[in-house]
Design goal:
The chain crosses the membrane at residues 12-31, 51-70, 79-102, 108-129, 138-159, 165-184, 196-215, 227-243, 263-283, 295-317, 329-348, 423-442. It is found in: Cell membrane. This is MFS transporter. This protein is mostly helical and 447 residues long. It contains 19 helices and no strands. The longest helix is centred in the middle third of the chain and has 31 residues, at 262-292. The radius of gyration is 21 Å and the shape is globular. It starts with 8 loop residues before the first helix and ends in a 6-residue tail after the last helix.
Length: 447
């Protein structure tokens, strides 16, 4: 295999990844803003409407590892292109849905398409960029994920100002068609192992991660606590059988072979902790800014902007630096910055100024941007090229599990603690970030 793609093919190949990944990540965030409107128009309860979000998340988490394994088998280009095609068609179906059931089913299909995009995107980056530019490529990839997830609410508000909620999905159609054409002409052809798809592993994977995410999402409902615990218990039992089965396979769907490598396992654990900390802050801070400090929704969005802006500025730089400086070292520094910014927010006082809030969140953004790209570089580079799909899928799974866990912790704390709950959440998020920094420091260079 050649060492990356030549310019301008490299530019167009990465462009299609940027477009597709932006759509997939955004659609996990923008629907939240329109949920009350969708609920009213489709005449469903608030509790039922949440499944418009959960259906998408569950489909992604259930299909990430299977599609990553399929990418190792048939080639990452095929999985990515088909995932993008499914996502685009499902986006149109979401916009055309006239009932809650139709929209929920379309969101499941859209989530499967998004899983196809997310499962192998970093694996493709490995074949798009030459080795001496890999850090920069992964930095740009991290930038897309971070900024897309953070900017989701603002973009959704802008779209809803100009049109109906259906446009949140319709905008994906022309973008998806453009990306499909570019992808067909520019994405690299990658090695294919040609091994058959393992349906038994797929069932165990679906039971493990499906019940895990569903159980975490329902923890906030005190009336459904028994159900939540049952679901989490089923996830643990299925997970034990899943791991036991995968240990016997030479190319497992759950990359236990890669998790046996300490640097890989520690990097996934570090990613989980960092995204859990980030999500805890993202979910809780709007409540603090609006309900405690009295800012409007629009002003809250502006106040949160320094975080994604600084992440966007730092991520490409940290990706390039990871070619020269040990990524583990950059990860420790970034997570210490993130933890410090969160701790400073927790002690901000009762009457902070706009500047007080902004520079603290900017520190969080610097830390997150400094950490993410080097950590992703370790994950993908510590796996053999033929296992890039498994590494990419597990990286995305760790991120989504961290985000789901962080959101579940916020919901539980909001339900149990009265007053100063956001301050407690910020302290816990800071502790998670510092713990992730310690985990990052345990890694030893191997790349």
């Amino acid at each position: 295999m050649p060492d990356g793609l030549a310019y301008p093919q490299r530019f167009f190949a990465f462009l299609t990844i940027v477009i597709a990944l932006t759509m997939a990540v955004l659609d996990g965030a923008i629907v939240n803003v329109a949920l009350p409107t969708i609920q009213r128009e489709l005449a469903v309860s608030s509790a039922d409407s949440v499944w418009i979000i959960n259906a998408y998340q569950l489909a992604i988490i259930v299909f990430l590892l299977p599609l990553a394994a399929l990418g190792d088998s048939i080639g990452y280009r095929k999985v990515y292109w088909c995932g993008l095609a499914v996502f685009t068609l499902a986006s149109f179906a979401c916009a055309m849905s006239g009932s809650f059931l139709a929209l929920s089913l379309a969101r499941v299909v859209q989530g499967i398409g998004a899983a196809g995009i997310m499962s192998v995107n970093i694996a493709l980056v490995r074949f798009i960029f030459p080795k001496d530019r890999l850090g920069a490529g992964i930095g740009y990839n991290a930038l897309v994920v971070a900024v897309s997830s953070a900017a989701g609410p603002s973009i959704a508000s802008s779209i809803l100002t100009l049109g109906s909620w259906q446009w949140l999905f319709l905008v994906n159609v022309p973008l998806g068609l453009i990306a499909l054409v570019i992808a067909a002409r520019s994405l690299p052809v990658t090695p294919a192992a040609g091994k058959p798809f393992n349906f038994q592993s797929f069932i165990l994977n679906a039971l493990t991660f499906g019940f895990l995410i569903a159980g975490l999402n329902s923890l906030s409902d005190s009336k459904a606590l028994d159900t939540s615990l049952w679901m989490l218990g089923i996830a643990c039992v299925a997970g034990a059988f899943f791991v036991r089965r995968e240990l016997k396979l030479t190319t497992p769907m759950l990359p236990v072979d890669l998790l046996k490598r300490p640097i890989f396992a520690l990097s996934i654990l570090t990613s989980f902790g960092s995204f859990a900390a980030q999500t805890m802050a993202y979910v809780s801070l709007p409540f603090y800014l609006e309900e405690t400090l009295g800012y409007s929704a629009a002003m809250t969005g502006l106040l949160l902007t320094p975080w994604p802006v600084m992440t966007g500025l730092i991520a490409p730089l940290s990706g390039r630096l990871s070619n020269r400086i040990a990524p583990q070292f950059l990860g420790v520094i970034g997570l210490v910055f993130l933890g410090s910014g969160l701790a400073l927010m927790a002690v901000i006082g009762d009457h902070p100024s706009v500047l007080d809030i902004s520079w603290r969140l900017a520190i969080c953004g610097v830390g997150f941007g400094l950490f993410q790209a080097p950590n992703n570089r370790i994950i993908i580079s510590s796996a053999p090229p033929e296992r890039s799909g498994g590494a990419s899928g597990l990286q995305s799974t760790g991120r989504l599990l961290g985000q789901s866990t962080g959101a579940a912790l916020v919901a539980v704390i909001f339900g149990l603690v009265q007053g100063h709950d956001t301050i407690l959440i910020l302290w816990l998020a800071a502790a998670l970030a510092f713990a992730a920094a310690c985990t990052s420091g345990l890694r030893r260079p191997s790349i």
